[in-house]
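Module 6 notes. Inverse folding takes a fixed backbone as the condition and produces residue identities as the prediction. Think of it as a translation problem where the source language is geometry and the target language is the twenty amino acids. Below is one complete input and output pair. Work through it position by position during the lab.
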């Protein structure tokens, strides 16, 4: 089964102290090849930003951040260009009073016909009516 993978879930998996049983179960299924991930290409930028934030707050050393980045880049996530998604994402964001970055994940999910996996409560609440 395929899912759109949200940057928050990636952060929960890779960043120290963020893991939960639910997050670990998702990535265990991924490692076992029972699920596959697709994401908008902005996933890489969002995750790089989260790593930088953890580094600036001194929650990670530079070596730890670089190692996490290498591990993240090794994941075979299908990244999709956002050019064709931005219009739909903008409409979703404005219709649901949400952030366009978050709406990109939903626009991709709608285009691919697959659900979104996210740990972002604000995003889930914004698009609750659409059944992520």
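Target side of the pair, the amino acids:
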């Amino acid at each position: 089964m395929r899912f759109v993978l949200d940057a928050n879930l990636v952060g929960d998996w890779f960043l120290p102290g963020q893991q939960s049983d639910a997050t670990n179960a998702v990535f265990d299924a991924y490692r076992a090849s029972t699920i596959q991930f697709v994401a908008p290409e902005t996933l890489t930028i969002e995750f790089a930003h989260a790593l930088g934030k953890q580094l600036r707050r001194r929650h990670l050393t530079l070596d730890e951040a670089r190692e996490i980045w290498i591990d993240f880049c090794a994941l075979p996530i299908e990244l999709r260009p956002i050019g064709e998604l931005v219009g739909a994402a903008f409409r979703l964001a404005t219709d649901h009073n949400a952030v366009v970055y978050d709406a990109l994940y939903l626009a991709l999910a709608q285009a691919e016909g697959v659900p979104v996996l996210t740990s972002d409560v604000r995003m889930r609440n914004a698009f609750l009516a659409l059944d992520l």
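Reference fact for the lab report: The beta strands are 2-5, 36-40, 78-80, 116-117.
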